[in-house]
Design goal:
Helices cover 46% and strands 21% of the residues. With 321 residues, the chain is α/β, with parallel strands linked by helices.
Length: 321
């Protein structure tokens, strides 16, 4: 009788330990911040195809309306991840100078010649046909220091400053409305602002790829970010979540029609509008080419050039892997 009893006790202990281990892997609720824009498509697809739930990971999605709000929430420990690629690369870099190694980048998102991401728009009836003609007018941007710095840089290439052009922060959901009502004269933004505005017949292109044309061949203004303390405390969970973001991205590329339907659920786009957009390129940090790394570094260098920080932001120091 002793052997069966001992075997029963040992088996019970093993089952209890396994249950505890499983609970430790799944009981952690992971908070993921995102902007309701096109660039978070890997997150949308991952959620809608239940990649997180299949992996036993409990997540909470928290939408924000400004890139800097995501960084503030990450630094305060209110969220654990900034979804790829709606966390601002530049603001992540700025945070590294002020609070070294608090955040780490695991992916970057951007566009190429055939994929429109950054765009400069004006009202369809506007008489503005060049950046120089914005003198004395108002330019709307995504809220925060990243897009304000990009706007200043673009204007500077045309001998304009903030004294010449009023720069106004506008939340993504309000941007097309602001341009439609003519409360601003132009809009420097990212998709889906262009698609929404064109579908409503209220905007026209002033310049495609304005940031890339004035800065570097490739724009990776968005990134996926994890709190360093979270990654250190939960290394396996962090790795799995990053893998799920990657799986979500791959699934989006394999079934773009489905992915675009998911985008319509999380952004101001209708399903019809969503089917017209291009999916931004999302890359893991290991996939970056040397030229792409140079482009990201050139982007980060802007924040030193324009006095946002007083030391150079080094890309290599920001990367998780």
């Amino acid at each position: 009788m002793k052997k069966p009893l001992a075997l029963f006790v040992a088996l019970s202990c093993c089952l209890w330990l396994h249950a505890c281990t499983s609970a430790s892997n799944t009981s952690q609720r992971v908070k993921i911040a995102y902007l309701p824009v096109l660039h978070a498509h890997p997150l949308y697809t991952a959620v809608e195809t239940k990649l997180f739930s299949k992996a036993g990971i409990d997540i909470e999605l928290i939408p924000f309306q400004a890139p800097n709000q995501i960084i503030d929430a990450l630094l305060a420990g209110h969220v654990d991840f900034g979804a790829s690629s709606t966390t601002a690369t530049g603001i992540t870099g700025i945070s590294h100078v002020r609070k070294p190694n608090a955040l780490k980048i695991f992916s970057l998102g951007g566009a190429s010649d055939d994929i429109i991401s950054d765009i400069l728009l004006t009202h369809r009836d506007s008489k503005v046909n060049s950046i120089e003609e914005l003198h004395g007018k108002t330019l709307g941007i995504l809220p925060g220091i990243q897009w304000r710095t990009l706007a200043k840089h673009i204007l500077a290439q045309h001998q304009l400053t903030e004294r010449d052009v009023e720069i106004v922060d506008i939340a993504p959901a309000m941007q097309v409305q602001a341009l439609s009502s003519k409360s601003i004269d132009a809009l420097l933004s990212i998709e889906p602002a262009r698609t929404i505005g064109l579908s409503q017949g209220v905007v026209r292109d002033l310049m495609k790829h304005p940031v890339r044309k004035h800065l570097a061949p490739t724009l990776f203004a968005g990134c996926g970010v994890v709190r360093s303390s979270f990654a250190q405390e939960h290394p396996e969970l962090t790795k799995k979540i990053i893998e799920i973001f990657h799986e979500g991205n791959q699934a989006s590329l394999q079934n773009t029609a489905q992915a675009k339907n998911f985008i319509a659920k999380y952004t101001p786009l209708t399903i019809k509008q969503a089917q017209k957009v291009d999916l931004p390129t999302i890359k893991s940090t290991q996939e970056l080419t040397s030229n792409e790394r140079e482009s990201v570094q050139a982007f980060l260098d802007l924040f030193t050039t324009y006095g946002v920080v007083n030391e150079r932001i080094l890309l290599d120091e920001l990367l998780l892997y």
